[in-house]
Structures are given as C-alpha cells and as structure tokens.
Amino acid sequence: MDPVAHAVELSTFRARAGVSPAEIETAYTRIRQEYMPRQPGVIRHDWFCRADGVWVDLLVADSLAAAHQACAGWFDHPATQALMALMEPGSPQMGFWVPGPMPEFLTGG
C-alpha cells in the first residue's frame, strides 16, 4: 500500500443472478473514468472477484474524510448507480479502516 495512504474503504457484494463478470467490469470501468477522477484524496480504486463470486471493492485515500466523501457521493452518480443495479440486494457490506497499532492478539503481547 502507498505509504501516504491513511484510510481504506473495503466493500464486498454479490452480483444479481444472471449478471456476468463482464457487466461488472464494464460498470467499474465507467466508475474509474467518470466518478473517481472527481474524488479528491482518492489514491487508488480497485476491484477483485473471489472464486465464490463475491466482489471486493477497495478504495485507498489520503484521509478518512476523503474516503467517506468518495463513498457519500456513491449513491447519487449515474456511473455508480449502474453498478449498484447489478448488485444482489442485501449483499453489499462496507467498512473503513485507518492505520493503528498492531492488536495484541497478533503481536503475542
């Protein structure tokens, strides 16, 4: 991850039945071209698909505020609405993360 990144937004979702991976890719390409360039503070935006069909949307921003701002506009833009129309209702899950100390259960402390 870019060392200047200070926040990550990670979402997961499933596509509606009958939606092809190519349709999801087309929607994401549109988001990358039409929506993300207008989002200040966004460093990177990528998407991935697991073998079980769960899609992962990853946004890296220079601040938590920038990550929140990029996500807040998600519901109002035609490019992002096109992707949302392909999602299985009830499947999207989203969260935000910021750097912090390593939890004790991982450090053995």
UniProtKB/TrEMBL annotation:
SUPFAM superfamilies linked to this entry: Dimeric alpha+beta barrel
InterPro entries to which the protein is assigned, alphabetical: Dimeric_a/b-barrel
Protein origin, superkingdom: Bacteria
Protein's UniProt name: ABM domain-containing protein
